[in-house]
Amino acid sequence: MEITIRSLWTLVHGMGFGALYLLAGSGAIVLLYYRSSKNIPTNALPRSNRFLGIYLSTMAALAWLTVLTGTYIIYPWYRATPPNGTVDLAAFPRSLLLSHPATSQSHSIGMEWKEHIAWLVPIAITMAAYIAVKYARDFGNHPQLRTALLGFVTTSLLAAGIAGFFGAMLDKNAPVDGGQTIRLVHGGKE
Amino acid sequence: MSVQMKIAPEVFPVITDSTVIPNGSAAAAILSASIGSIAVALFAVAADKSANAKDLFVFYKPTGALSGETTVAVLLWLATWAILNWRWRKRNVSLLRINLIALVLFSLSLLLTFPLIGDLF
């Protein structure tokens, strides 16, 4: 079993950081919804509020890792320009997508949206993490703040979901592949 | 404890005292994040419409204009955050109004980054 270095980075970016962010996002919404309830004495939950700050800070770290690996490691491989006369475009995903009318919109809509909307996620979740840490001991006195956090974390999850969806679609049609091959498991003789 | 509302008590009717952390820092974080988000969207539209803007945003050639659009937007976000936090950190502000502005800016950001809408401009 083997994998190329570019495929490995794509896995780390999408299935690692990105998917983990999406999974964590649903948990964050539950945590924040719980705190938005009027019947919950939030100041009676200092340890839980501290946990929320750590949880959202971890999500912020995941969001930054996702966009930075995507923008500065994988995207350059995706948008690389093939030399003149190149027939096999497998190593040039953007050119491969644009070469067929059936897949060109995967780039012109999918990738164009994904590459920008993804950057809204770390900005929104960093703000949420800061507020959760700063007001960890004082959430009970700021009901509007709890509701706002719930809204912005949900928005960031929506943006991350759109980016993740198009990332998966693009990888299905024109995977970023190539580079050095890493052998994960040595196969035996049959 | 003294009871005082500095801004828009009719919009944000919370009684404050010295033991409650003012909401100014949170408002600064929310508003600046929404400004950073709309900056990402506006820079994307600008780079798509203008070849000069696109060239200006190429900070790292392998990534193209995306590198500059996002770097400038993040710097703008952090600078706005620092300034607003410095001004509002000891105050209570109208969080409802800030949240509404932020909601509109975030929603516009989501829409403007969608290429078919960005292409309308």
Describe the structure.
The complex is a heterodimer of chains A (190) and B (121). Chain A has 190 residues and is mainly alpha-helical. Chain A has one domain (2-79, 91-183). In chain A, 71% of the residues lie in helices and 3% in strands. Chain A has helices at residues 5-36, 46-78, 93-98, 101-117, 120-134, 143-173; strands at 2-4, 181-183. A two-stranded antiparallel ribbon of chain A has the order 1-2. Chain B has 121 residues and is mostly helical. Chain B has a domain at 33-113. Chain B contains 5 helices and no strands. In chain B, helix 1 (24-49) packs parallel to helix 4. Chain B is elongated. Classes of the chains: A mainly alpha (190), B mainly alpha (121). At the A-B interface, helix 2, helix 4, helix 5 and helix 6 of A face helix 1, helix 3 and helix 4 of B.
Strand content of chain A: under 5%
Mean pLDDT of chain A, to the nearest integer, reads 88
Give the radius of gyration of chain B. 18 Å
Taking the sheet with the most strands of chain A, its summary is: 2 strands, antiparallel
Spans where pLDDT lies below 50 across 5 or more residues of chain A: none
Summarize the amount of helix of chain B as a percent range: 55-70%
What's the overall geometry of chain B? elongated
Q: Which term fits the overall shape of chain A? A: elongated
Quaternary structure: heterodimer
Average pLDDT, all residues of chain B = 86
Determine the structural class of chain A based on helices, strands and strand pairing. Answer: mainly alpha
**Sheet with the most strands: spatial strand order of chain A:** 1-2
What letter string, H or E per element, gives the SSE order of chain B? HHHHH
**How many helices of chain B?**
5
Largest interface: A-B, 35 and 39 residues
How many domains make up the 3D coordinates of chain A? 1
Number of strands of chain B: 0
Q: Tell me roughly what share of residues is in helical segments of chain A.
A: over 70%
